[in-house]
Amino acid sequence: xxxxxxxxxxxxxxxxxxxxxxxxxxxxxxxxxxxxxxxxxxxxxxxxxxxxxxxxxxxxxxxxxxxxxxxxxxxxxxxxxxxxxxxxxxxxxxxxxxxxxxxxxxxxxxxxxxxxxxxxxxxxxxxxxxxxxxxxxxxxxxxxxxxxxxxxxxxxxxxxxxxxxxxxxxxxxxxxx
Length: 177
What we know:
By secondary structure, the chain is α/β, with parallel strands linked by helices. The protein has a single domain (8-175), classed as 3-Layer(aba) Sandwich (Rossmann fold), CATH 3.40.50.1820. It has helices at 8-12, 59-69, 97-111, 129-136, 140-146, 163-166, 168-175; strands spanning 24-28, 37-43, 73-78, 117-127, 155-159. The chain has a five-stranded mixed beta sheet with strand order 1-3-2-4-5, sandwiched between helices. It is globular.
């Protein structure tokens, strides 16, 4: 997956492909049923992937357990570790939103190749920074520059996205393209 794009033009001109990295993720499939399964991708907040296991942020784990029981697979996406970062809480520019946005779509592309996945029923959610990524996932023009037009998130549930972190200038740049 791509390394360090920090602006929309990296997506538009394809230059994000010049620094590929391999992003980590944890995928769990329901124990019952044979699939293909719907999937919900969890994008973490600025605190990083440790929030998926932190006692204070147990909502994601509880939601994942409930989804698995209902026959929905879950994926926890780690956007920071491969970039040498554990958290962006004190410096949001340590990993750009565009990098993590690309990761989400490359994860979707990865899932499209797994026969256990119903690719037409993949959703994304996240809190704070992860919510921003799930909100950005609905932008069709960015998606079309990254993956096949046949790939899209069937649902997005942003939780407390912070548009100011993404930057007004970045949002305007996307909207004006």
